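Worked problem 6 (solution included).
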Amino acid sequence: TQSRSSAASDVYKRQVYKSTLDAIQQNNVRQALGDIETSGSPGGKVSPEKEELSGDERLRSLMGELPDDMQPFSHVVDQHLQTGDSLKFSRKKNAKTPQFSNRVLAARALGKTPSEDAVILLRSLLIEPDSERQVEVVTSLGRIAKANPDLGGLAECHGPFSTLLLAGTPLLRNACAIGLGELRHQAAIPVLRSALLDDESNVRIAAIEALAECISSEAHPFSRRDHVVLEECQPQKVLADICKMLSDNEPGVVAAALNALARYQHVASLMQVVNIGIQYADLAKAAAKVVRTIGSKQADEVLIPFLVSDSGKQRALAMTMIGEIYT
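Solution. The predicted structure is:
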């Protein structure tokens, strides 16, 4: 009986000893972690700066205080944190992500799927009452037209685009003007000429650029069956309209007009173009490209007198234009 009691006592002592060691070990771990968190803080409290740190930042600060032999593990942790940042899965970042309707996302996806079926589906979405959705649809159709200009079904888009260009919101009118340029159909020329008078400068710019595409040799030919066309527009008439845009109050519109005139080497009013380049630094190079089309010798005769001008600005811009002509 005594031997049994002694054996039971020994077992109990070993269990108590083991549990005590475990408790001491756990306590040491807690103290060590507490020392890391409160190191450098008065009174052993966590500093306000660390309390304000985000979870990732605080973890990084703790990793930096580990002993040298633990640094390889801190590098692994840091890599995982970087991966999480790149994936942007935190709730805070997700909350800032803009929300789009399924129709908008579908329109964007179809725009990257150049096929006749995609064109048909997108055309059916043009009747959307929401102008923002219409902008996405028009943009997607334009993207398809730019990549695959001969794709079936695109020719039927210039009619709805023309209607929306006349009656849509400013953002939609701008998208339609750009879209008509990407369709490159001569049937859109009349409505684009009308858009040159739009109140929005961005629409006027898009209309100029679209007209330059519609009179190119790669544009789809005019057809009397195109219901939106009242008369056939010759390139010279279109370029004459673009020349009038050189008097626009917006520099961006003037720049678009200069680029179109340089593309087709059309100089109706040479001195007007030169005066634009001499007066406006932002337009000097664009004006020089138009002047260059008349030939370098004639361009020199026009610009050299400005090199002896009393205005330092005119002398500098004349040099800029001459440099651009000979580039």
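Discussion: The two ends are 113 Å apart (CA to CA).
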